[in-house]
## 1
Amino acid sequence: MASAFEWSASRSGDSVAAVEGDDSLTYADLTARSGAVAGALLAHGLRPGDRVMVALPRGLEYLVAVVGVVRAGGVYVPVDPRWPGARIAELRAIVDPALTIGAGGISVGELIEESPGGFEAPEIGPESPCYIMFTSGTTGEPKGVVVPHRAVVRLVVDQDAFETGPGRSWLHVSAVSFDASTVEIWAPLLNGGRCVTVAEELPSIHRLAGIMRSSGATDAWLTSSLFNAIVDDAPAAFEGMRQVMTGGERVSPEHAQRFLERWPGIRLINGYGPTENTTFTCCHTITIEDTHNPAGIPIGRAIRGTDVLIVDEADRPADEGELLAGGSGVALGYIGDDSLTRARFVERDGERWYRTGDQVRRRADGVIEFIGRLDRQVKVRGHRIELAEVEAQIGAHERIDRVFAFVLGDRSDINRLAAGYTCPGEPVSPEALRVWLSGRVPRHLVPDVLCVLGEVPIGQTGKADLDAVRRQIEASIGPGGEESDSRGTGGIGWDALAGRPRE
């Protein structure tokens, strides 16, 4: 990947590589400054494969740091400098970095000042680790995903699932510790484009919209929740854009339809994929027809450099079942957790695959539709229930937008099926919805508790905060055990929508 950057930079010269407000760096500037950082890191004794924790916010300084680490053969570990010290210390203990840039470590300025004035680039192979991105774990412990150079190159170089190249300006709005930042940073920098960094910590939606328009951004990756918020409150932000990618959770057909009706000339893409397969596994260019699909917006087909396989419960190839991701994007595994790595990264027919845990189906035309998580199967009063099915059935109501299903336990430890839902217009009362559902599904699939939600609370990953949604539902239950008909409340913080991990 370092060679890909240098090739891109050598062709781009005085073209702008990155923008932060009124400040900018040309490719020549970025090459010189990151080269100085690389030289200083090597002078500090950094060896190929050594890890460097980069605790800096979005901005030009962050870009100089990570490009420098990559060119020195190191592995960058992005963390949010605003995280609690205990959290940063926990991650530092896991990765055991050779150096830390920011957060009490050495600064970019100090590295540049210390630079010997040049460096001999180490040999970096495609299997060499490039960065470590942390995700939440089922045990509550963070998982560090080790991503190699070939995976990033596969994502953004000569990719056919989305457009890249000189003259394109990519909005960098995600948190540096969120894997969407991989495409936001490297798609422009490895293809002669511009990285438009939104360095402000908490601008409003309207302020963000202003930045999108004034910066001339042509391309953006937005979580579904952030995309929805902009469509709702500041749709003019998309003026002049050429490509918008969204995802991270189910895409709202209603918001996609409104976007496409207003901006038919902008390509809207649903991007699906886990961190363990380097940001995107499948992509789908959304059409108006897709917004009327009862199964929701498809996740599409495997992107270039990626293989996908669907297997049933017996691990046999099938048209519906668990999605396995293979090809050049598959990560090396989890740092310090060989057992989990062996469980999730498996060998089949001489190829390495990542088990996503996502249930999908392949349509007759080859397009893949997302069904839900395989680990959301529950039992209520002896009945085996897939929460994804409950959500799909309620979501089929024409006046209902988003649905979240849970199992709640009362003081008698008797599980009750519960669901919260949002209505863009006039709300559907729980009583009316129960009657409607009773005409569609068996009784055991009709939730005991139904709750009309207000704004869906957003966690700092930019996705729905399921714990907060659950609390809204629990709060709706009256003294007699019945749900109320009042809307819940929730708040959306812009930085959360942009992918700040929730602590």
Note: Confidence is low (pLDDT under 50) at residues 484-496, 499-503.
## 2
Amino acid sequence: MMIGVLGLTVLVKARTLEPDPRGYGTHEQLGFAPCYFQKLTGKRCPMCGGTTAWAQAARGDVLRATDTNLGATLLFAVVVIGSPWLLWATARRQPPRNWPTWRFMLAMASVWLVVVGLDWLRRLI
């Protein structure tokens, strides 16, 4: 239940943020410092634009979110689907049906890391 509530809380917070027009930096509205990697190298890090992508996706601008940071947008989709699913299972007092296996979750995490890496290369070029 806690994970479902946390997921919904993060989704609501993403909706309250104003997406930075640069495509990154929205996390600074939460009090976080600018990206150190970008400050050091002048290049965006693999997750630069993640908070901006969530703020865009939370407003329904999925195309802009995927262009801003595809990996973060995929995580947004997982939370949008997963949080209500977990809360529904908790309300029914039953474990979620078809709970993913560790092997499946590891495979999906691996695919996600490849997507993040390829998307980062796209943004660097």
Note: The two ends are 42 Å apart (CA to CA).
